[in-house]
Amino acid sequence: MRPALGAFFTACLVVLCARSTAAHDPITTKVTFAREIRAILSTRCTPCHAPGGSAPMALTTYEEVRPWARAIKEQVLTRRMPKWHAARGFGAFKNDPTLTPIEMALIASWVDGGLPRNAPGAAADTPPAASARPKIGLPVLTVPPGASAASAPARRRWISAWSFDPGDPLITSATISSDAGVIGTWVAGDPVVSLPAGSGMRVSGRLHLDVQRREAADFERPFTPKPSVLSLWPLPVPPARSAWTERVVCGASRTGLPAELIAVRPIMPDGGSARIWLERLGAPRTVIGWFREIESRYARAYWLARPADLPVEARLQSDGRCELEITLINARR
Description:
- It is a single chain.
- This protein has 5 helices and 16 strands.
- With 333 residues, the chain is an alpha+beta fold.
- The protein has 3 domains: 10-112, no CATH class; 134-239, Jelly Rolls, CATH 2.60.120; 240-333, Jelly Rolls (Sandwich), CATH 2.60.120.
- The strands form 3 sheets. Strands 1, 3, 6, 7, 9, 10, 11, 14 and 16 form a 9-stranded mixed beta sheet that branches. Strands 2-8-4-5 form a 4-stranded antiparallel beta sheet, with no helix packed on it.
- Strand 4 and strand 5 form a beta hairpin.
- Helix 2 (33-44) packs across helix 5 and helix 4 runs antiparallel to helix 5 (101-112).
- The chain starts with a helix and ends with a strand.
- The relative contact order is 0.15.
């Protein structure tokens, strides 16, 4: 019995080893996780896909990434991730987090080529040390765990930037305002949001913050939320140029002061889409963007790569019904 039993276990071990070997795709690419893929994920994905981050799964190590590799390929090739609702090729934006065509091709080559961790003969794959996030802003408002809104007194001041540190990974976006008007937005994965150099926005009265959340995925690990913190970057002196926000209806003539348009946030129902362009007397149309399948949980402002002149009587036109929250800048009022 024992020899037969030993032969049986030996045969099982051979079969299991064969299955394990067959489960690994043959390596047919020179693209590796250690050399190319980790760098792409670090730039485009891990601002959200990190332990305790706002996305359902972490993508910081090879072991974390491998089970999701084919899903990652599908999501980036169809441009469903990172979350970004402006169509590529229609306008240009400073805060565009999407992958370049070369980055997408590298991920596809890596996945289709067998998911190699490192090149043969290369040094052991050692993840780089995480860099500490700079803490420069002044914490001004704390959101209790589970709350969807918060407010706090804000003394009159000028600010040049803001950031939001979510204590809850289910928080997807935040809208920040004061009694002086809307300040701006934060979306999961955003770094510090900064106004153009030499400009600032006035804050006065009370600060207000509204947050949006997503549903937890079935496979997410339990997480105990912590307080979330809003920070502002105060200016020591009034700036040379002031920034502010206005809410406009698409197609309506603007009657405010001449200014430069630096950001736009489409406001429409979930799933809505619209092409936005700028019409000015004596000037050709300027494409602002094509915003598709808007999600209110990701209330994002799209910051123009280059400011656009917005004189009196200019129109922000659209091929659909919508409103816009626009951020403007000009000489200090």
